[in-house]
Structure formats: C-alpha cells, structure tokens
Amino acid sequence: MPVPETPAARLLDGPTPKHAQLREILRRLAQEQLPPGTPVPSERELATRYGVSRLTVREAISQLVTEGLLTRVRGKGTFTAKPRVDAQLHLASFTEDIRRRGMTPATEVLDHGELVPPTATASALGLDTGQTAYWLFRLRRADGTPMAVERGWYHPREVPGLLRHDLTRSLYGLLAREYGVQLDHGRQTVWADAADPVTARLLGIKPGSPVLVFRRISTAAGAPVEDMTSWYRGDLYQVTMQLDRSLPGSGPHPQQGGTR
Q1: Is residue 254 part of a domain?
Q2: Is 4 a residue whose pLDDT tops 80?
Q3: 107-141 CB burial, b ≥16 within 10 A, e <16
Q4: Do residues 181 and 127 share a domain?
Q5: What does pLDDT average to over the chain?
Q6: Per-residue model confidence as pLDDT tens digits over 93-149
Q7: Who's near 74: CB < 8 A, 6+ residues apart?
Q8: I need a surface site. Which of 24, 130, 146, 167 has the fewest CB within 10 A?
Q9: Looking at the predicted structure, is the pLDDT value of residue 256 above 60?
Q10: Distance between CA 102 and CA 247 in Å, rounded?
Q11: For residues 25 and 243, which has the higher predicted lDDT (pLDDT)?
C-alpha cells in the first residue's frame, strides 16, 4: 500500500529523531486515511520509502502498537487497530453503555445454574456454608465483536428466580425492573492477565493474549447482591479513572464498577 506523498511526510535531519518523525506520519495515516483493520506498509516498504533502517521503522511501529493505534498479527503483518472502548468506572448497564457509544450490544448466555459457590464468593455474598447461589456465564459483544466474558454469582434471597428470566439483555435493568433492586455501591479490583484457552476462544484471540480482569462485589441498600468477574479484551478495552489527592477514609468514595 503506497504511503501518500505529502511535504509533511519527508524525514528531516535535526533534533527530532527519525523514528519519532515516522511515528507521527504513521499516526496521521492510521487516524485520517486508513479504516480499522487496514494493513499498513511493511517494514521493508517503509524503510525504502523514507530512506531509514528497518530498526528505525520497527521502533516507530512498536510505539504505535503500544499506544493501541496499530496491531501486529503474526504471519500477516501490521494493521490499524479497532478503537478501544473507553470505560469510566461506574455502575452502569453494558447494554446501555455500548448503545450510547453508537454500537449494537449483544449477549449470549453460555451457561447458568444454582450451585454452591467458592468460599470467597460465599463470604462476599454473606452466604452460609453449603448455601447455593445463582451462577451466570455470559459472553458480551459490541457490533458483533466479542468484548468480554463474564462469570457472576447472585444472592438468591435478593433476586429469587433470577434464572427464569431472559438473561440476554441488561442484567441491571432486569434487577431494577423485576426486583426493584438498584445496585448502588461496588468494590472492584482490576488486574492484567493472560487469556486462558477457553477465554481466548470465546473472545476470538490467541491464548496468552492480554486481558483486563475485573472482579466486582456489588450491593443494594447495603445488601450484597453480585460477585462478578469479567475478562475484557486488552486490545479493545481501556479504563479511565479520575484521581485526586484524597487518602482512603478521608471523604466520600466514588462509586466503582464496570458495565453489565
């Protein structure tokens, strides 16, 4: 694919390293001319076009891959990346959040049941030893692209008969509509991980690919309702957080969470 001939595309000797100049050329190309998923010129083509070494080209591309603007596919080349969904942490519906971004949400229920949860979940939900809870395993998509895998537990006393409902729509909407349950507080932990084979297959990525993992325990009027863990694609999802200088316990805490 030819790189457009423009005066701004010429690399100049000077204080700005050539890899940084080339990085900005490729940035403009990816942002202004190439739709997501379009291949960019090979390292060899770019090196020849701009009269630089392939090491210089590789450095420029690597920086844009790190930023999430480009993505490498083994054996195929480098492509413009799909824009990441930017999640600002709050308790909200995945369905409504995706629609607000102009995309079409979809949910597939992979499995569900009434089971005895792990000890950590039983403790989080305030369940007695051996008491069962509702378990829900779902795949979430945006515009047909797998975005997240969710495995969640729900307190049966707070949402009796939950599994009898249509669980392919907004779960938070269902809880509010059918049970009058408004989740109003959540404590969430986020970490990076490598996708296991099952999660990778569901998300359409290679095993070992980076994923963002969210574990959230949510309550309504002080009663624990949900213990949810979600695995989001690292190449399509990012998190924005507002920070201040307040120390824990020094004032009101913002609501935390993801999207369901």
Answers
A1: no
A2: no
A3: beeeebeeeebeeebbebbebeeeeebbbbbbbbb
A4: yes
A5: 83
A6: 677 777 777 788 899 999 999 999 999 999 999 999 999 999 999 999 988 989 999
A7: none
A8: 130
A9: no
A10: 37
A11: 25
| 170 and 51 co-located in one domain | no
pTM metric for this prediction:
0.65
Q: Which residue has the tokens 């597939």?
A: 108
One-letter amino acid identity for 150? Answer: E
Instruction: Quickly list DSSP for 65-105.
Output: HHHTSEEEETTTEEEEPPPPEEEE-SSB-HHHHHHHTT--E
Give just the sign of the alpha carbon dihedral 225, 259, 236, 166: positive
Token digits of residue 109: 């229920």
- For residue 38 the two structure tokens come to 């379009």
Same-domain check for residues 91 and 218: yes
With respect to residue 245, please indicate whether it lies within any of the assigned structural domains: no
Amino acid at 254: P
Domain holding 42, by residue range, is: 7-80
In this structure, are 167 and 115 located in the same domain?
yes
- Residue 186 is predicted with a pLDDT of 86
Sorting pLDDT into bands at 50, 70 and 90, what band is 70? confident
Contacts of 177 (CB under 8 A, 6+ apart): none
- On the question of pLDDT at 231 being above 60, the answer is yes
Q: What are phi and psi of 66, to 5 degrees?
A: -60, -40
Contact 212, 234 (CB under 8 A): yes
Query: What does the pLDDT read at residue 93?
Result: 65
* pLDDT of 84 strictly over 80: no
Q: Report the domain count for the chain.
A: 2
DSSP for residue 163: G
CB 248 within 8 A of CB 238: no
Q: How far apart are CA 191 and CA 124, in angstroms?
A: 19
CB-CB contact of 9 with 46 (8 Å): no
